[in-house]
Design brief:
The chain has 397 residues and is an alpha/beta fold. The chain has 2 domains: 2-125, no CATH class; 149-394, Rossmann fold (3-Layer(aba) Sandwich), CATH 3.40.50. 35% of the residues lie in helices and 15% in strands. It has a 7-stranded parallel sheet with strand order 7-6-5-8-9-10-14, sandwiched between helices. Strand 1 (28-34), helix 3 and strand 2 form a beta-alpha-beta unit. The radius of gyration is 22 Å and the shape is globular. It starts with a helix and ends in an 8-residue tail after the last helix.
């Protein structure tokens, strides 16, 4: 039935197809989709596109964009519409599918289709999440706040004890509750494991804000220099972005909210990292340090090396239920998080990371990562403290 509807839609869109063919010798019309239901995609994919456009990459191209039915952040979408032309998906989706299936029209697609890894019969729309030309460092954020928005954002922060010149760090933990997931994602974590790190930040004359939406987990921490925005009754899409735009850096799990930091050019420390297969999508300049989870073999009561994890593809899954019963996913400990936050704090002060006798080993580990996932990051490193204390987990032979 869906195929029949698609064919009918394409039939009615034939005049547009003929028009695109007619002007193709002079201008190329490109169809592009943003996965707007995903916060990270809505944020970073369009920021990369705007950077490429400003860099002069698409001088002879006319871009027309469409979205999912769901918009994860309506404020960001409103701002994007100031720079990008959108049309309804009911018009552009059929064109996208049609153009993707005919080689002649490949030039008319910005994000191509690729085979779904789980269901080979289905196609999914690929999107650009990686700034391969390092343009984010070249250009300022494309989302600009007007005077009214700045006034509203600063007033909200001041009302919650964050004054204009205060330095602060944003903390977040991924929960299934936010997206009403029925699964237990391998990326989820307990916010309370970050309390020691929050105390360290506060002791260094910074303030801390817990960001996120509709969080279920309560945090067992109260301090005059800590504000739990995730539990605030005044949450709104605008504030989600504005707060992060003002922080010094962010500490979070591997989740979409991280990309709000990236588009505002704020560095982030990524905790509880699992999906090394997707590290190619991280923008190195804004994710200098990651801290991975571990996996325990219950039969031997030993932690697996990362080589063993990669070989067994235990980090390739999305849910804890997909991990065989003999293995257990081990979340970052409060001390591991504390030490990595200390490293991130030093990095933001000096723009340097101290390698405690593990530079060569880190290089070898990333070479091994490349052999499994065909990618080696240019600048991202494993938390040096974690690496040094767990060297046996990073063996490459």
């Amino acid at each position: 039935m869906k195929k029949i509807i698609l064919i009918v839609q394409i039939f009615f869109l034939l005049p547009i197809i003929f028009f695109i063919i007619l002007i193709s010798p002079f201008r190329t019309v490109k169809i592009a989709k943003v996965k707007s239901k995903l916060l990270g995609s809505l944020a970073i994919s369009l920021e990369i596109y705007l950077s490429e456009k400003k860099n002069g990459n698409y001088k002879n191209d006319i871009f027309v964009w469409y979205t999912d039915k769901i918009i994860s952040n309506k404020f960001i979408f409103k701002k994007r519409k100031e720079d990008i032309f959108f049309l309804p998906g009911i018009i552009l989706y059929p064109l996208h599918i049609f153009f993707s299936k005919i080689q002649f029209f490949e030039k008319n697609i910005y994000y191509k289709l690729k085979t779904n890894e789980k269901d080979k019969s289905k196609k999914i729309i690929y999107e650009k999440l990686k700034d391969t030309q390092n343009l984010l460092n070249k250009y300022e954020p494309f989302i600009k706040f007007n005077q009214k928005e700045i006034y509203e954002g600063d007033k909200f922060l001041e009302k919650n004890c964050i004054r204009k010149n205060d330095k602060f760090v944003c903390f977040a933990s991924r929960e299934s509750f936010f997206r009403n997931e029925k699964i237990n994602s391998v990326r989820n974590s307990n916010i309370n494991n970050k309390i020691s790190a929050m105390k360290f930040i506060i002791n260094n004359n910074f303030k801390t804000i817990r960001v996120g939406r509709r969080t279920k987990d309560e945090i067992d921490f109260k301090n005059d220099n800590f504000f739990d925005y995730s539990k605030s009754e005044f949450q709104k899409d605008f504030l989600d972005l504005y707060i992060i735009s003002k922080c010094n850096f962010m500490v979070s799990d591997d989740t979409g909210i991280n990309e709000l930091a990236t588009i505002m050019r704020k560095p982030k420390l990524i905790l509880n990292f699992v999906h090394f297969k997707n590290i190619k999508n991280l923008n190195d300049d804004f994710a200098p340090i990651i801290l991975p989870k571990k996996i325990l073999c219950k039969d031997t009561n030993k932690i697996l090396s990362f080589k063993e994890i990669f070989e067994k593809k235990l980090f390739d899954v999305n849910t804890i239920e997909e991990i065989p019963n003999k293995y257990e996913l081990v979340e970052n400990t409060p001390n591991e998080i504390l030490e990595s936050v200390k490293e991130m704090y030093d990095y933001t002060q000096t723009k340097k990371i101290n390698f405690p006798d593990c530079n060569k080993e880190q290089f070898e580990f990333w070479e091994m990562n490349k052999s499994f996932f065909n990618h080696k990051p240019e600048k991202i490193i494993i938390s040096p403290h974690f690496f040094k204390n767990n060297k046996e987990l990073f063996v490459t032979t």
